[in-house]
Each structure stands twice: as structure tokens, then as C-alpha cells.
């Protein structure tokens, strides 16, 4: 099975011109790109592009008085197929709880989006205990058939954006623990680059969630091409 490679651009790049330039460089890659909301306009996407669009977040309501938020229905109407939910930066900087993440998952699934659920431990925490707690609470009261549609992204928080990547063998231990809990597609994320990406794939991950390296077209292409 072909690995699923997802680019999370976070709050980058700074201008529309830069975003268009990156889109054009990625147009022939079979990947998922999750740009900022303002770059999800289909007019920006190059004609004939092979990549699929994803979003970095969504609200749990279809519509309403939620200034500054984007609903799953809005994303679906833009042709978005995937949505990242529960990223550690959302959990930390915006105080998203497992209860909130659970609500977002349910609504995203309702509108046919494929959620990418991010889980992972902070430095010094027990990885297995944390991911088990997150899975239990994030997937609470979601139907089994819907749970199967969710992609799991294991991202040790201490490795995200720090350059302190998690050794593949260590990541594999958590991967096997998660597989014992849920038989879904599981990605690895956390300072992934072209030097380490192959090791994670060999460890058994089904793909990668790539942050900073996805803003470098040459580096990202190396990751995608293995």
C-alpha cells in the first residue's frame, strides 16, 4: 500500500504568491496538503494538480455565531477531503480538550471529511498512558464504522518543530501499542525530514505528517519519493 504523506503548512507561507508557488511545485505529487484556510480556494490550486486538499482545523458546529471559525460543511463545500484535528499546537496554545476534539471528530465525520487525529505525549510523560487516554476520550461514543475512517497521527509533542526527532525504534514501540488498541491507518509526525522519513516507514507506519519540511519543495519531494 502506498504511504500517505500529508503536508501541514501551519501558519505558512506568509503571502498568496508564495502559496501559489509552493502549490505549483507540488502539483505532480500524490500527497495531501493542509494549508491555512485562506489558501483553500480552489482557484489557487493549479489545474491538473494531483495533490488533495486538507484543512488544519475545523469547528464542531455546522454554522452559527462562532466568529473566526470554519465549519466542516464549509470545508466540504470547498472540496476539502481531510482535516487535522487535535494537533498538539491546538491543544497547547488554544486549550483544546479531548472533549472538544471528540465533538470535532463527530462533526467532521458527519460531513464526510476524513479526520487526521493527532495524539502524542509531552516530554517526560509516559507515551503509552497518554495515547491510550487520548484515544479513549477522543473517540468516545463514535460508532465503530466511523472510527475506522479516522487516520491516527502519532506525534510526540517534544519532537514537533524542535529538531529533536524521535528515534524510529522508540516510535515503533508506541506504534505497536496503538495498533493493539486500534487497527487504523497510523502516521508518524514530529520533525520529519528526508534523512529520517524512510526509517519511520520501515518501522511500520502507514505514512507521515510533515510540518516544516513540507515548506521546502526539494526536501519534501525527497520525503515523498522515499
Task: Please tell me about this protein's structure.
The model has no long low-confidence stretch (mean pLDDT 96). Helix 8 links the parallel strand 7 (186-189) and strand 8. Helix 5 packs parallel to helix 7. The protein has nine helices and eight strands. The longest helix has 14 residues, at 168-181. It has an eight-stranded parallel β-barrel with strand order 1-2-3-4-5-6-7-8. It has a single domain (4-224), classed as TIM Barrel, CATH 3.20.20.70. It is globular, with a radius of gyration of 16 Å. The chain has helices at 16-26, 72-77, 88-93, 98-110, 127-138, 144-147, 168-181, 197-202, 217-224, and strands spanning 4-8, 32-34, 52-55, 82-85, 114-119, 151-154, 186-189, 207-210. The chain has 226 residues and is an alpha/beta fold.
Task: Throw out a few tags for this protein.
TIM Barrel, alpha/beta, 8 strands, 226 residues, single chain, globular
Number of domains: 1
Q: Can you list the strand order of the major beta sheet? A: 1-2-3-4-5-6-7-8
Overall average pLDDT: 96
The CATH superfamily bears the name Aldolase class I
User: Segments where pLDDT lies below 50 for 5+ residues?
Assistant: none
Radius of gyration: 16 Å
Count helical runs. 9
Q: What do we call the CATH topology? A: TIM Barrel
What percentage of the residues does DSSP assign to strands (E)?
A: 15-25%
Helix content: 25-40%
What's a quick, concise take on this entry?
By secondary structure, the chain is α/β, with parallel strands linked by helices. It contains 9 helices and 8 strands. The protein has a single domain, classed as TIM Barrel (Alpha-Beta Barrel), CATH 3.20.20.
